[in-house]
Amino acid sequence: MSLLSFENLKVSFHQNGALSPAVKGVTFDVCKGETVALVGESGSGKSVTALSSVSLLPDSAVIEGSIKYNGQELCGASEKELRKLRGNAISFIFQEPMTSLNPLHTIEKQLSEILLVHQGQRGTKARARVIELLMQVGIHDPENRLKDYPHQLSGGQRQRVMIAMALANGPDLLIADEPTTALDVTIQAQILTLLRDLQASMGMSMLFITHDLGIVRKLADRVCVMKDGVIVEAGMTKDIFDAPSHPYTKMLLDAET
Ligand code: ADP
Ligand code: MG
Q: What is the ipTM of this complex?
């Protein structure tokens, strides 16, 4: 059953008096409990597609088509409805955790704020939940990391904290936009394993955006290959890797090996 679905999504941006298209009619869905990878080179429209799903695009964007979450139309949904979805059902992880974490707040404060705003949790209960979340994402000795500021953590630890923040709402859908691109290769592998384990244990659905086919192979049930604002090929991961049909997919696969 489809959890998030895009139907003929088109996104253009007002720029210098003209309208320039970024996404040109994209149709795909993410079903409950599955991981779908959106893969393609830089500038192909992956982030714009993902951001449009919860109206995180700037006002210069013109969006057409249909985006449904659990059957509910999101295009044209009220800010109140969207905020509720972003608070409870859908979470995002971005590429560079430093830009999403507040450098002036401790790890505990950033996580507690989410628990307070979205779940009304505070005090010792919230603190216990913060520690539990940090443990869940593999932060060692979490009690002693609560008062750390983002700059005191390594890149991999910061990304773990970002994942903890994304999990704090107990989302049904996690959208991860190149969450490991800024990390060292060994740390990348650890974060991917973490995401895969979390996805499996929590039964979350995941939309995983990447330009790296190696990641797709490890993580995704299905793949959509995007190029110049359209999906040129989609299918089960194994089928795409075994027998790609579009020349662009073949080229990506050749470049990988
Ligand atoms: P990807 O995530 O696949 O690297 P994006 O979705 O970020 O690519 O971008 C797709 C296209 O849309 C690019 O040409 C990019 O320049 C353009 N674009 C993205 N965001 C904006 C914006 N806020 N204003 C204008 N153009 C944008
Ligand atoms: Mg992007």
A: 0.99
